[in-house]
Amino acid sequence: MSPQTVCQTDFKPSELGFGAGALSGNYDKIESHWPVEACRAALRGGINVFDTSPYYGDSEIILGDALEALKSEYPRESYYIQTKVGRYGYRPRDFDYSGKRVRESVMESMRRLHTDYIDVVLCHDVEFVDFNDVVGSGNALESLFQLKDEGVIKYVGCSGYPLPVLLKIAEHQHSKGKPLDVILSYCHYTLQNSKLAEYVPKFRAAGVRYIANASPLGMALFRDAGPPDWHPAHADLREAAKACAQAAKENGLNIAELASIYSFSGREPSNLDCTYIGCENADDVKRALDTLERVKARKQGTETPSEQEVQVLEKIRSLLAPYQNYSWQSPTPKELAA
């Protein structure tokens, strides 16, 4: 696909967004040539938004270098970049939501990403800090809105895991006449937990213009290799997820593809703007785009799920039933104790 200038007066993300946290190496070892190839495959396939964060290891640097290497093919104005502020480590003490640090962080991100503006900046994992650290005078959101007024960034938002926390912030900002532009929720539209669908109308009522879903695989909960050791899901849910993967494999299916189909299928009925999926390499991008095309074909009636897939999904629903719409604690006890 030839590069096209993305809309500069309105945020129009593609149905799929590129989750560049996967480039950090926190999930798997990344080969040096993968990022450029993955970004090229994404842009050629019509993906126009990349999500990263200073917290994701070297993700900003790796993504920035990859996009810089592609600038003759895909100039900066042909895609959106979304990054975050506030979280710089694993523990609650590694957060800094002060206005001064937020401004410094945005400038640091621009240097890493080789850009003189950022399309979207989110307060990262807002549940780790006090409410006032997010919304109070001189703190994170106030600083981000100032940067928006200066033209350094275009859209302001929040990301996090507990939906009630995100909604409280969105409603507060709406009452102040400074509504959030963007909410990024993760692991809340998956095979195991689809609570985000219930919250979308509430976010819209609070003036949020763009709502995105991330981690359709539940932060690698639903993949053949199983979740990484650091995954916050409790042992019983992890075992159930492994059983789901095994049930799919025994029937010639792939759990990651089934999980992606489920998540991607929820975009229109749930009124979501974008779903971010982590991609480590070009093959990951191709699989995600192919899965999206399958979802579209099913919507149009040109493809139907096989009987085998229907049966496996019934088995998966049964395995996950005890944990349906369960949300783990965030911050986790391990994070709080660190």
TrEMBL record:
GO terms for biological process: dehydro-D-arabinono-1,4-lactone biosynthetic process. It comes from the Eukaryota. GO terms for cellular component: cytosol. SUPFAM superfamilies: NAD(P)-linked oxidoreductase. InterPro entries: AKR, NAD(P)_OxRdtase_dom_sf, NADP_OxRdtase_dom. One of its GO terms (molecular function) is D-arabinose 1-dehydrogenase [NAD(P)+] activity. Residues 15-266 form the NADP-dependent oxidoreductase domain. This is NADP-dependent oxidoreductase domain-containing protein.
